[in-house]
Amino acid sequence: MTKSMTNADTHTQRVAILGAGPIGIECASALQRSLPNISEIIILEAGDTIASNIRQNWPHVRLFSPWKYNTSTSSREVLRSDGQDAEGYDGDKCVTGGEYIDQYLEPVAKALVKCDNVQLHLRTRVVSVGRSGLLKRDMGKEARSKGKFNILCTRIPLGGKKESVGDEFCFRDVDAVLDCTGTRSDYSWFGEGGMPAIGEKQLSRDKDSGSFFTRLIPQVGEVKGKRVAVIGSGYSAATSVRNLIDSPTVQQIYWLTRRVLGKSGQLYRVLEGDALQNRAALCEMANELVSRNPEPEGDGSGMENKVAHIDNCTITYATLNESTNGSTPTITLTIDATDPTAERLPVHKLDVDYLVSNVGMRPDLSIHSELQVHTCYATEGPMALAATLLGASGDCLTQATPGIDSLLTPEPNFFVLGNKSYGRSSAFLMRVGIEQAEAVALYLREQI
Ligand SMILES: Cc1cc2nc3c(=O)[nH]c(=O)nc-3n(C[C@H](O)[C@H](O)[C@H](O)COP(=O)(O)OP(=O)(O)OC[C@H]3O[C@@H](n4cnc5c(N)ncnc54)[C@H](O)[C@@H]3O)c2cc1C
After folding, report:
1. Chosen domain end from 312, 341, 357
2. What's the pLDDT tens digit per position in 280-312?
3. N or C: which end of the chain has fewer CB within 10 A?
4. Are the CB atoms for 42 and 15 separated by under 8 Å?
């Protein structure tokens, strides 16, 4: 569907996609396929490039889902319409985040922007979405269905300069909005009950924090000659631990998990016959590691192995010990037991040189705070979908893709899709997002 092939209808249909990550791009392809005469698809992306979350934060990490789960018929059609090769995406190969962008998302995005009706605005951060002439508290589905959306954005200046009032502008008269902004803009805290540990905020704000603190997955060899603590028990934490083990000069790794390790001694549930082999291998490696490397005695000294797993950890203080002689500072973690009645209690103090916090991310709800979007009190995903997922199987791969009913919010024609639709849950897979994109595009064909 190149520029010459588009055929704008006289009735204007303007759809905005917030975020040009994998699912934002898939939404654009699905709209092109299901509504070939749509007048405008506006994609608004905060980063310098498409998929900037993956590009900036985990280009080196290998996906555990293979090509066949991460690509769509609609995007292949976009590639073919542009005269590009759309073969080779069906296999079981798992590429890295960076390769996935270079070999698939980027070519699809380039083909999309050649279409007359597609606009991609990079360095454009969405601040807020509102309904023209209606406040959040104004009830009445019919009135809300008729009102158009306005989208307040801020243009991110080049060269890392701060955004100012003069950079703000508004997209008006939008018929439907698909919020695909992911969850990367906000991180979860590692302190008690999900609060920041005392000192945690300061750690991330310190001007030199990059030399002793990260919330990302370190690359192999990136951390050199240090004692490292990794906090978290998700797939990201396990990947960090694996990369640190493979980093030759790392001295010691303390893997701290909130959960109490059950009698099974398993930190991860290995799914029987898991079709995602890389995920299964990661879980097996992690379980083997925690069973082989119990926590050290007393203050953490006397470790024989490079890795120690310390479960039942609630971190109450993260204290930065500034260096006086120009060397890098150290961090002292003060740890209480999550379950004080458990058999094993964690060490109380731990000194490390580098801290990796992989305790999850959360969606930015402020974007739709002026709309009637009902979010789940537990996950912060949209309520209808969250309720459907509650009863779903633990394996994100085998979860039935919820139909359009679970994607509708009380706000007509406003959708939360992709990673953000799962809120704080880490069970989201691109496969699900691709199906969401197709379902919403088909629905909008009847609505706008
Ligand atoms: C280490 C790691 C490995 C993973 N491996 C897999 C895997 O193997 N398979 C799988 O299916 N999933 C995997 N995931 C989950 C994965 O993140 C998602 O499947 C995928 O990135 C979701 O795409 P998305 O488009 O919903 O969100 P994102 O990739 O987060 O994209 C959101 C986009 O929105 C932009 N944005 C954010 N806020 C704004 C704003 N206010 N205004 C404008 N733009 C904004 C961001 O810059 C970004 O480009 C992994 C996640 C991590 C962290």
Report:
1. 357
2. 999 999 998 888 766 655 444 444 568 998 889
3. C
4. yes
21 lines ligand 1 (CB under 6 A): yes
Say if residue 285 is in the same domain as residue 150.
no
Q: Which residues pair with 16 in a beta bridge?
A: 42, 177
- pLDDT for 5: 35
Q: Is 185 in the pocket of ligand 1 (CB under 6 A)?
A: yes
CATH of the domain at 379: 3.50.50.60
Mean pLDDT value of segment 231-244: 95
Mutation probe of ligand 1 site: the residue of 72, 121, 181 with most atoms within 8 A of C-beta: 181
What is the 3-state composition of the chain as percent helix, strand, coil, each rounded to the nearest 5?
Answer: 30, 20, 45
Which is the closest atom of ligand 1 to the Cα of 19? Answer: 34
200 lies in the same domain as 175: no
In a shared domain, residues 219 and 349: yes
Same domain (yes/no): 219, 144:
no
Which pLDDT score is estimated for 328? Answer: 80
Choose the residue to mutate in 126, 184, 422 for probing ligand 1, maximizing ligand atoms within 8 Å of C-beta: 184
Ligand 1 neighbourhood includes 289 CB (under 6 angstroms): no
> Does 252 score more than 80 pLDDT?
yes
Taking every pair of C-alpha atoms in the chain, what is the biggest distance, in angstroms?
75
C-alpha 18 to ligand 1 mean position (Å) = 12
- Enclosing domain of residue 236: 189-357
Of 306, 332, 357, at which residue does a domain stop? 357
